[in-house]
Amino acid sequence: MPTKTLADIAAKLAKLDIAMLTTQTSRGQFSSRPMSNNGDVTYDGNSYFFTYDGSRTVHDIEQNPHVGLTFEGPKRLYVSVAGTATLIRHKPTLQKHWVPDVERWYKDGIDTPGIVLVRVQARYIKYWQDEDEGELHLPG
Predict the structure, then answer these.
(1) Can you give the residue ranges of the General stress protein FMN-binding split barrel domain (predicted)?
(2) Please, which contacts does 102-108 make with residues 24 or more away whose CB atoms are closer than 8 Å?
């Protein structure tokens, strides 16, 4: 039986900067890469990551939006998220999720040519921390 709520998990994930985002390639292989969530984890079940159009990430999501996220945190915290990715190019939405630390990769901010926001809507979360483990199933 899970002892953590969605809010509990979100609070822990917001403190972790890096997630491994896993997509499936057009050849059926898995491709993982580190992505910064910029602390943008409000967790109504969504995580947000910036990337570039034309990247492997965008190509894979266009072919198959089912993705995985993995996080590792202090005190032996591990979180696995299965979800659906959406690509967002709408500038007001990009601005809403923008944080200054991202400027090191996107020099012109949300006006950087080819910038894309990836939203991952969680459908299933599994977590482990010491002897505590559980699963959360989210609607969608």
Answers:
(1) 8-131
(2) 102/36, 102/38, 102/50, 105/50, 106/50
Q: What are phi and psi of 19, to 5 degrees?
A: -120, 150
The neighbour count for residue 77, using CB atoms within 10 Å, is 18
Encoded amino acid at 40, one letter:
D
Q: What is the pLDDT of residues 60-97, one digit of tens each?
A: 999 999 999 999 998 899 999 999 999 999 999 999 99
Please tell me the pTM assigned to this model.
0.91
3-state secondary structure of 56: helix
User: How many CB atoms within 10 Å of residue 115?
Assistant: 20
CA distances from 128 to 32, 76, 107, 111 (A): 21, 8, 37, 39
Domain with residues 6-134, CATH architecture: Roll (2.30)
**In the chain, where the domains are located:** 6-134
**55/100 Cα distance (integer angstroms):** 22
